[in-house]
Amino acid sequence: MRPLFHPAIEDVSPEAVLHALSDPSRAAIFANIMRAGCVEACSALSAVGDRVIPKSSLSNHFKVLREAGLIRSERHGIEMRNYSRWAEVNARFPGLLAAIINAYASDAGDTSRSSRTSPPG
Amino acid sequence: MRPLFHPAIEDVSPEAVLHALSDPSRAAIFANIMRAGCVEACSALSAVGDRVIPKSSLSNHFKVLREAGLIRSERHGIEMRNYSRWAEVNARFPGLLAAIINAYASDAGDTSRSSRTSPPG
DNA sequence: TCCAACAGTTCCGAAGTTCCGAACTATGGG
DNA sequence: CCCATAGTTCGGAACTTCGGAACTGTTGGA
């Protein structure tokens, strides 16, 4: 398999980054990679939580993250290792990734939305 | 026309915000509203710059921004005024909007991408 | 009241994107 | 070579986006 395409950091665009992270599954996968430093694609299946993602979709999610410049993928033997490009992206767009990951984290821990299923106890 | 739908701030989700701003036209419109404090929809036609946007698309862009919780639209006589909900959104997702607007601004002023048309002088 | 001009919205078909199961390719072990 | 594992590509259904034409709502003039 020929080497996967990774954009140079100066070709990483804000729209691609925002588009990639505007999908909660992809944001969760990316947050996981950031936390762990590195993650194998198949182990990310469980990482997204409740929702089971078919591997074709997962492959596509990794591709979108990779082509947005958010992760670097390396084949190691039989499996793919995915590393976050946090430092590079953060140097290019200071504070962007942290703010996004934070926004998702605070949203997940939020119980005050009006669409809640049951009223407060 | 009945009042337009605006989500409560606690119902504003990171994915909707990122999706709304992952379109460069919408990001430009929003950046404009932030700068000016308030903008009329039709005057935003020129605001996006080079590209002329048909009014049906423009109307849709404003709708996406409004339903993502980024702007508040009010009808004043014949025209619509659009205000940024920056303070509210910033309280909910600290630093997010500033980082995004900054990212687009630094990207626009960037001359180092490899897809440039001419080499450095 | 009727009409024209203007500001935005809605409708709807064409074009593009996303989703995911099935088939495929690449790597490693026996 | 054959099988198992890890991931990619294909292709069709479902969804989204774009934009022109027609529409609604508001103002001002006669």
TrEMBL record, chains A, B:
InterPro entries for the chain: ArsR-like_HTH, HTH_ArsR_DNA-bd_dom, WH-like_DNA-bd_sf, WH_DNA-bd_sf
Name of the protein this chain belongs to: HTH arsR-type domain-containing protein
SMART domains noted in UniProt: HTH_ARSR
Taxonomy of the source species: Bacteria, Pseudomonadati, Pseudomonadota, Alphaproteobacteria, Hyphomicrobiales
Superkingdom, taxonomy of origin: Bacteria
TM stretches of this protein: none
All copies of domain HTH arsR-type, residue ranges: 16-98
